[in-house]
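Same chain as my last thread, 191 residues:
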Amino acid sequence: MFLRRKTIEALSDEDLVANVKNGQQASLAALWDRYAHLLFGVSMKYLKDTEQAKDLVTTFFGDLLGLLAKHDVKSFRPWLHTVVRNRCLMQLRKHRPDARLDDQPEPLEESADDAALHEATLQQLESAITELNEAQRACIQFFYFERLSYEQTAERTGFSVEHVRSHLQNGRRNLRLLLKRAPPVGADRHA
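reply #2:
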């Protein structure tokens, strides 16, 4: 895992992208820290093979500087998701030529609670997380995005393990409620 500095953590994705274009390797490392695990999840959803998913994410980050030089990326996170999704579909087409871009992957086994979260787009989820209270947001960030244990999350937040569990449970419930209220993706286009 890369060491991260607070100044890097505080920068927006777009600031990090600008730094990467200027050759700052620390910013590339920060983008890896923020998104490698999420992109691995996207890759696993499509490829259903751990090694292929790891290879795809690693190759993507190896190509990132060249891609950023070719594309004017306004909103990094959705662009990132789209590029990795398309790379997964291209890889699937190599082995299954009849695969179409609009094919939906078979869902991974997940609980009913997790299914509601996975149906939302990354942008909706990110927006919903910002609406949580600070304790729930911090616990979700550390536990799910940084993959810390309950104990490690408790150490980072100063909460007891029981409070961490409670904040996670309440945070998940609140995210489900927020995501159910969110308008469907593209709904405003048809209005």
